[in-house]
Amino acid sequence: MQKESNPITNKPDNNLNAYPLIEGMFSPDDASTVLFALINSKISFHQLESFGLQIRSGISSAHSEQRIKALAQMKRDIKQVLELARENGQVLEIHSEIRITAVTANGNVNTSN
Fold it and tell me: Which of 17, 22, 87, 110 would bridge 96 by S-S if both were Cys, CB 3.0 to 4.6 A apart?
């Protein structure tokens, strides 16, 4: 029996799909532009999520607040790496992948086809 195709990717559905997001060599300045745009976008997403929850229910999103703190720390760490590379005249090889796994609402991996 042939597996059904994932309607998004048209690949056999094995519950895991991977997509290369960032691949290549970057100058510190280009790496800064690309990486901080992604991180800032994630921070904005969590700020909006937390704000929306606060407006709707009067409570804050602990998950979003934790992610904002973690992302802010990530920015500081990456900034140090970029500054060191810049000082040493280095370029940076960056690889980032988006992996998507289908799960049921209770968090279990969906294995039925």
Answer: 22
Structure tokens at 17: 């799909």
SS (H, E, C) the chain: CCCCECCCCCCECCCEEEEEEEEEEECHHHHHHHHHHHHHHHHHHHHHHHHHHHHHHCCCCHHHHHHHHHHHHHHHHHHHHHHHHHHCCCCEEEEEEEEEECECCCCCECCCC
Task: Report the alpha-carbon distance of residue 113 to residue 100 in Å, rounded.
Answer: 17
Q: pLDDT per residue over 26-55, tens digit each?
A: 999 999 999 999 999 999 999 999 998 888
Phi-psi region of 72 (alpha: psi -120 to 50; beta: other; left: phi over 0): alpha
Q: What is the longest distance spanned by two Cα atoms in the chain?
A: 58
Per the structure, the complete domain to which residue 66 belongs is given by 28-89
Residue type, 84: L
pLDDT, residue 60, reads 78
For residues 84 and 35, membership in a common domain is answered with yes
